[in-house]
Amino acid sequence: MKRRSFMRMFSAAAAAPALPAMPVAAAPAAYSKAAFHAAIYHAQSRVSFSVWGLAQQIGIPVGQAETLMHDMAARGILGPIQGTTFGGRWATSNILQQEVLTARAANQARKLGQGSGEPALTGDLSKMMTHLRNMAKSHFGEDPKQTA
After folding, report:
1. Is 124 contained in some domain?
2. Residue 48 and residue 93: Cα distance in Å, rounded?
3. Could you give the number of structural domains in the chain?
4. Is the pLDDT reported for residue 120 higher than 70?
5. d(CA 137, CA 96)
6. Cross-strand pairs, 93
7. What predicted TM-score, i.e. pTM, was given to this entire model?
8. Sign (positive/negative) of CA torsion 64, 65, 69, 72?
9. Domain enclosing residue 35, as ranges
10. Which of 9, 23, 67, 91 pairs as cysteine with 78 (C-beta 3.0–4.6 A)?
11. 93 in Cβ contact with 78 (< 8 Å)
């Protein structure tokens, strides 16, 4: 039995130089200056964001987004990176601009019609209501107005 384990160890040691060398550490994924500036804008307009969300928003691979967020955290732009999964890590912004959030909220309110005091839904809904009544009548066999 001892001879067999010795022979295995000996053959493994003899075969080791023939195997291709494995890299000790993978090189960090490089990112462009444009991606860095886009990430800074991303940090100015969001309270918190993830590696995956940053990669999707900017259009870079997840590995580059991970490296980018670590560099931004090292520079103090972001808080500490949290999370354990590769794409699921997230951080909070240290450079959030409140006026960007306020402008975004005002723009969304304007789109909904709430900022001007007008009702959000305008137009004639009678055709849709007639269609819904007809569907209910065909499904239940009676007029929903009369049962309610």
Report:
1. no
2. 6
3. 1
4. no
5. 54
6. 78
7. 0.51
8. positive
9. 27-97
10. 91
11. yes
